[in-house]
Specification:
Helices cover 0% and strands 37% of the residues. It has no helices and 29 strands. A ten-stranded mixed sheet has the order 1-3-6-9-12-15-18-21-24-27, with no helix packed on it. A ten-stranded parallel sheet has the order 2-5-8-11-14-17-20-23-26-29, with no helix packed on it. Strands 4-7-10-13-16-19-22-25-28 form a nine-stranded parallel sheet, with no helix packed on it.
């Protein structure tokens, strides 16, 4: 977050283009999301000390100073918001609750979402596309579970310069772009599988998933910083490039699974850190890599000290 809590004054007449928004009612269970109970845990969940942003001298990584709401942006208070008009822009809002997007080409920027007990901070519903979340912060209250910071049940989504923390899972999407963001410090609740950025199957036809230039820190010993799972199908067409990864059971679950051989998975130029766990993750840096998958590429992935990281 790039500013302290600011601006507590407003109602729903508040923001630009809020004609497409409505007060949120009772929060629904996600329509297409099920518990990730099939994914193996590395160990029992035990929290490590909260890790500060990791900044090797030669690179500048996303962290509290360059993600979230920029300093000086005034924020207006709102409860939960339901968006139903295409092209709606939500700008400069302090939301206590959640934002549910039931429209196309919606933009959320300069906004802080203080998640409450429930399934998500921000949700794009199935059948919708084009959501952009930029320069914003999403977090839970630390006492009651917010299951997902950003949950995408729809098609394309862009997440850029967003600070997500104190949630069970940071971002769940099968396609779109997640870049220049800071996803860190999850909160464990009994029964959780905890992942900072994850996919649970293949992207929609004609799309891909790009995860690049993020700082992704899971301060628990399960499950991952970035997780490419096969819950709903064989993983393909994913690029994981130029990220800083630390923590979890494995810092990266790389797409292999029982449903088939992953393909076109590109893991390039990432930096794995030992600052949460000595092995990167509590069990190691990477697991579930299909070395013979067509189009799969593992290149130039290193430890912070410059040593190569091998997928095994």
């Amino acid at each position: 977050m790039r500013s302290s809590a600011i601006g507590w004054c407003l109602g729903l007449g508040l923001i630009v283009l809020l004609s497409g928004c409505q007060n949120g009612g009772a929060q629904d269970r996600p329509l297409a999301t099920q518990p990730l109970a099939t994914q193996p845990l590395a160990t029992t969940p035990t929290a490590s000390a909260s890790a500060p942003p990791l900044n090797p001298a030669e690179r500048s990584w996303p962290g509290p100073d360059n993600t979230g709401v920029p300093s000086g942006v005034p924020l207006r208070e709102s409860g939960s918001i339901r968006v139903t008009k295409n092209g709606t822009v939500i700008d400069g809002v302090e939301v206590t609750g959640y934002i549910t997007v039931e429209a196309d080409d919606v933009t959320i920027r300069n906004t802080r979402v203080r998640g409450t007990k429930g399934w998500w901070g921000i949700l794009q519903r199935e059948g919708r596309t084009g959501l952009k979340v930029e320069d914003s912060e999403v977090f839970g209250n630390g006492k009651e579970r917010t299951q997902f910071g950003i949950l995408n049940q729809g098609k394309l989504i862009t997440v850029r310069r967003v600070d997500i923390h104190t949630i069970s899972n940071g971002i769940l999407t099968q396609q779109g772009v997640v870049e220049d963001s800071y996803v860190h410090d999850p909160k464990y609740y009994s029964g959780d599988h905890t992942d900072m950025i994850m996919s649970t199957g293949p992207p929609a036809a004609g799309t891909e998933l790009i995860i690049r230039r993020n700082t992704v820190i899971n301060t628990l010993d399960q499950t991952a910083a970035i997780a490419l799972f096969q819950d709903f199908g064989v993983v393909r067409n994913v690029t994981v490039e130029g990220n800083l990864l630390a923590g979890g059971g494995w810092s990266l679950y790389a797409g292999a699974g029982v449903k088939g051989t992953s393909s076109n998975i590109k893991v390039i130029g990432n930096v794995f850190s030992r600052r949460v766990w000595p092995k990167g993750g509590s069990a190691g840096p990477v697991s579930y890599w299909d070395k013979d998958g067509p189009g799969n590429t593992w290149r130039s992935n290193t430890w912070e000290n410059g040593g190569a990281v091998s997928p095994g």
